[in-house]
Amino acid sequence: MSVDINLVRSLTMFASASEPLLSAVASTAILKTIPKGQQIAYEGMSSEWFFVVLSGDIRVYKMHESGKEVTLFNITNDESCILTVFSILSQEYYPAFASTQSELTALMIPAASFKKWVDEHSILRDHIFLSLSGRLKDILNTFDDVIFQRMDNRIAKFILDKCPSNGDALNITHEQLSQELGTNRVVVSRILEAFAAEASIALSRGRITLCDKSKLLKK
Asked: Is 125 within the bounds of a domain?
């Protein structure tokens, strides 16, 4: 069953595509829904599908043999994974891990078809280069945070990014936050408890609520 061509046309990657390319994508692609919490990519696996996220959130991360994790970037609506593109075009194995952070719906294209269309259509190559630039900036920012920023600064920044206003809440456990930031749970718990003691945030099971944005901005 083909995908609605208007759905394909609505995606940034294909917005300027020719009608023949749009028709080819619509007749080849499939739609897939994946539950929250699913591991969808492993380091060292072959990438057999290219995808564009229609709804949901994917976390892409590296994991050390010790089990410590650090998030490289997230993929959300109308975005694709530049590491998947790299894997398909270079015929190399996928270099990271990826899991769904919420229920995911994606437009899926077989790797062979995607590679053929990239070879034939400059608009796809232009989009890939633009995406690469943005993701490289994300990864460099992550490295900068890991190497140069104190952990309390990084945790404050993470909370503020997710909770822009006082009263906003973030559903995340201390363990999940430690995985996002590439540290251990004990360190995260100690810092969060210090933030709570000064009334910057309020803590409850699996939930962080922003109480005083001005205090966290000073971190």
From this structure: no
Residue 80, token pair as written in the block: 């694709």
Q: Is residue 126 part of a domain?
A: no
**Closest to 117 in 3D by CA, of 156, 94, 89:** 89
Q: Does some domain include residue 22?
A: yes
Residue 13: domain span: 5-120
Helix (H) or strand (E) holding 97: strand 97-100
Q: What's the length of the chain? A: 219
Q: For the segment 91-138, what is each residue's pLDDT rounded down to a tens digit?
A: 999 999 999 999 999 999 999 999 999 999 999 999 999 888 888 888
Q: What is the mean pLDDT of the chain?
A: 93
- Residue 216 exposure: Cα atoms within 13 Å on the Cβ side: 27
Residues 70 and 108 occupy one common structural domain: yes
